[in-house]
Amino acid sequence: MDRNTIIAIVLSVVVIVVGMTLQTLFMEPQMAAAAAEAEVSESIDTDGVQPLTGSIDLRAVGDVTDTSEFSVQTDNFDITFNPNGGTISSIKTAKHLENGNPVELLYRDADDPDAFTLYYGADNSFEVDVPFSYTTRTSVDGSLRQVIFSRDFEKEDGSGRFTLEKTYTIPSSDEYMIRMDIKAYTADGSALPLDRGYTVSVGPQVGPSFDSLGNNYDYRRVEVMYEDHGSKSNARFSRNGVFTADEDEIVHWLAVSGKYFSLILIPDGVDIISAGATQSTSDTGITQKDTVYITGSSDAAGIDDTYYLYAGPKVAENLRLYDTADSNVFDLSDMKLDEVIDGNWLSWLEAILKWILQLFYKLIPNYGVAIILLTILIKLLLQPIAKKGMDSTAKMSALAPKIEEIKQKFPDNPEAQNAAMAKLYKEEKISPMGSCIPMFVQFPIFIALYGLLNTNFDLRGSMFIPGWIPDLSIPDTIYTLPFAIPFIGAQIHLLPILYVISMIFSMKITQSTNTAGSQAGMIKFMTYGMPIIFFFIMYNAPSGLLLYWSTVNVISIGQQVLVNRKKKDVYAKEIAEKDAEKEARKEAKRKGRRR
């Protein structure tokens, strides 16, 4: 393999890897005084005591007999509460499905802590895991549901008794926000026996479920938004899986984000001691767990802190409700939650393309068809740019006889072949890489479409062809093998195979197969090597993305075939005329010398 071909391979791999990496990085109303309904769990106030987990000088007072989990349903949620610790053990979305069932947003193993687990102190050593009594109620207008957990605590010597309350408020309307208030107080106003603060956590993962996160088309990450920053940043974990937020910054929110859903923990007026996240990986159970936490201070006067949890889709119209107070039931504003939506420097172009895609979807309610129509429109708009490259390819085809002559004239001399080819290209005023130049011009559109078709929430669960492509947001699996193939896995996807075939045909027809010298090796690699590389990179890509690329290849093949038929004979005739004129001039010179 010659030096130029090796360089082409290395540069191609670098461009692909860097491009994919950049794309990954880039691209309350109050409760009414009178409740409409109230249900109170039976709580017997006795002298029974129950120490907290770990070695700590605090114990729960009284007995709680009803420790069964229970659910609260709203328009968007089915939330399961756990009286043991007064936590949330499940958050399911009513409107978004996974395999026909509501998506579980709180993705966890059976032994993982619930969401809003409370710890005494600045770590997870002392979990408040004792049973709480609870009350549920609904506001008079029905707009809010509330669950109030309560338990008394005291020091081991029986002094310093205080009450701990955790109150959850859930909108009945079409919102994905949950409010949680933490209060700790004494009956007589005396000082609380708490001097180490408390920690609240949310995790261990955001749904839907996943088997692995080994490619760029699905992910889970922790993100942090500081109050004075205009954009989020990704958490950078230490080797032991710990991320600590900058102590010099005010944490606006912390998020555990996936491709389509997020859990966003928002402290409201909390005196934060520390904030951050933990991350762990495992070969069993959930392969990656990300838990965010906030440690708040406690003082003698008591605790009265508020937290919000956005648990829902990464859809701008849902997230931006909390930028304007009169748009949400909690009167939240300037939350900047839409920062969790993946974006890059071409987000503006992605937004335009999304608008056009949705317009086509309104005309024909099938996103697969809409993607094809969008592809055709883009190809038409870019035709003036692409035309030059296609004309260059047609002219290269017309030069095939001369290229073959050069190969036969210098069969074992690549340097001489290159020199002769360079002279020929200069005389004919064409570039052998002319068909590649339009690709670089169109690169921003490709990047924007990659972001749109890879992360667009609207494609989630959207069917294109029944029985083949039931969901454009995931790969099309036509068969599952009883064993795994290296680099591919056990699932067989048809679209990547069709994509590679179309890419090879597209490359063959848009590149000159008669190139001489070292460029022939590079062209051969571009024709066969690049599609093979892309096959492995794109194998687990969403069907919508592969549908776009395959359509691009098919259209490009059709365009080039038409141009070749139309222009090849024209260019051949022009070349023949130039050769005849050149030969006539030479003959005239020879006759002049004879005289």
Key features of this structure:
595 residues, alpha+beta, Beta-galactosidase, Chain A, domain 5, five-stranded antiparallel sheet, 23 strands, disordered N terminus
The CATH architecture of the largest domain comes to Distorted Sandwich
Briefly note the CATH topology name of the largest domain: Beta-galactosidase, Chain A, domain 5
Distance between the termini: 53 Å
Rg of Cα set: 32 Å
* Helical content (DSSP H or I, runs of 4+): 25-40%
Number of domains: 2
Determine the number of helices (DSSP H or I, runs of at least 4 residues): 12
Which CATH class of the largest domain is shown? Answer: Mainly Beta
| Average predicted local confidence, pLDDT | 82
For the secondary structure, the number of strands is 23
* Cα shape: elongated
What is this structure, in a nutshell?
Helix content is 35%, strand content 27%. Mean pLDDT is 82; it is low at 1-11 and 13-47.
Can you characterise this structure?
This protein has 595 residues and is an alpha+beta fold. It folds into two domains: 32-340, Distorted Sandwich (Beta-galactosidase, Chain A, domain 5); 381-435 and 464-581, no CATH class. It has twelve helices and 23 strands. The strands form four sheets. Strands 1, 2, 3, 9, 10, 11, 12, 14, 15, 17, 18 and 21 form a twelve-stranded antiparallel β-sheet that branches. The chain has a five-stranded antiparallel β-sheet with strand order 8-13-20-19-16, with no helix packed on it. Strand 4 (70-73) and strand 5 form a beta hairpin. The longest helix has 52 residues, at 543-594. The model is unreliable at 1-11 and 13-47 (pLDDT under 50).
